[in-house]
User: What shape does this take?
Amino acid sequence: MKPLHIFLFAVGIAILIALPLGQKTYIVYVLCSWLIFSIAAMGLNLTVGYAGQVSLAQAAFMGIGAYITALMTMAGVHWVFAATASVSTCFVIGLLLGYPALRVQHHFLAFVTLAFNTLVFLVLRNEEWLTGGSFGLVGIPRPEFGPLSTMKQLPFYYFALICFLVSAGAMAWIIRSPWGRAFKALRENPIRANSLGLNTSRMTLLAFAIGSAFGGLAGAVMAPLVQFIEPGSFALVHSLKILLMVVVGGAGYFYGPMLGAAIVVLLPEVLRFTEGYYLIIYALLVIVLMVFSPSGLFGLGKKLADRLRPQRVERGDLKQGSQL
Amino acid sequence: MNTQSNVLSVHNISKAFGAIKAVQNVSFEVHKGEILGLIGPNGSGKSTLFNCILGQSSPDTGEVYVNGKSVAGRPSHQLNKLGVGRTFQQLSVFPKMTVIDNIIMAGQEHHGTMFSRLFGASDAGLTDEAEQLTEFFKLDHLRDEEAGSLSYGQQKLLDAAMAFMAGPGLVLLDEPAGGVNLTMLEYLKDRLLTYNREHDATFVVIEHNMEFVMSLCTRIIVLAGGEIIAEGTPDEIRANDLVIQAYLGG
Assistant: This one.
């Protein structure tokens, strides 16, 4: 890591620590939502942005994670164990959901994952004996760590921040490891990657499983934040929202989903002063962005940086003329 | 039949698509260190045969052995682990990855286990080896460029470099000269011959460029209508009437 990167990283952490100080409860709640959706979007970014698969089921994994955590913590199990169970279950289900990706691609795969999200929604709504049906689950406890309670909004923010940082650290580790390179190779040229010894089936399944596990963790943090969950919070529209976070921020960029989550979660709050027009303005902004920069805000930033940067003096190979 | 002494043994491979017999009872052996050319006019069955050897298409009949092991039905990644490298007819690099990352990717699956790759060094300890290969293929000045930004010929060189990264004993090259300019072609040939000499590697080359294939290969097999019509040294093939007929349609 270069000194500049360490400095920027430290500044970023300091901002995240200072951000909720002196803010009203609602603002802190919105910031917690941003951190949680960032975790979910980070996972989806691995599946979609790095590994090149399609998934419209991230909200379903948030739902599975949230319900498992809610049920376990309401039964007296500590959040750490409940969250571990949520993440593990989502990993295994994600692995299974990845199997169709070995046979179908692109919009066909989108439909498979969309159907899965709908299936999860229906199970959550219809299995009342377990999930409370449409009424959901109420009174989910917030975690306590010895003398430290997260009952108040500010301590919960720091709890969510720790979960976010651990997730971001794990994701950074995966992306910088040879696995990250293998995921990118899978996205860019799966046939070539396979010919180089990469078991593309296994990496496809892993991309789904890891991405889903992040969704499960997001759900496990979401449940104690809201303390009330119901199936509608994990319907298909929320999967589309998480996908929007990835795309708007920049799919395949590490910080893309965090920026995307900030836009999708925070921008409607910022535009609230426009009253009834905020959704229209928000939708227009997204459309304009997608038309002019399909690679998202980070892609746009990269394009601008390339344009502003002085043209490379001379690329190495051009010194040799056209002989190569 | 003794398959142990041969790096590649193809026995009675046949493949039909409906009524079209693409490959019919093709058998041949490739010995260690040999550069075998596989030529033939369009539609002669070269690519189908290549696909059958590489497990991308299942032959109707016949067997393929690599170093004496049957490889029928094995997926590409398993063949690669058995020491079979390949290049593609079309450009086949990872365009958004840098040259050095392309080459490291080509070797990393041969180092350690899946889990050690997750917890180990980000380059899987392959940077030095990859840099040596970029030097060998004169791509070192492009080390950190995105592969997609290279010229066609450079991408062809990179494609070849990737096929050699894992140190394969057998490399199947699918039209390596296609679309490459003359200067680059000479360079590519020189690199292939040098690699063959230094590593005693075995090549099977599909190629349309006769000059290239005649000067590169030690033995040539000619396919026409899915069957082998001639086999011999480049000089023997040049003088073969059946080959001239197959190409000129006489």
User: Anything to note?
Assistant: Chain A has 14 helices and four strands. The mean pLDDT of chain A is 92. The beta strands of chain A are 137-138, 144-145, 148-149, 228-229.
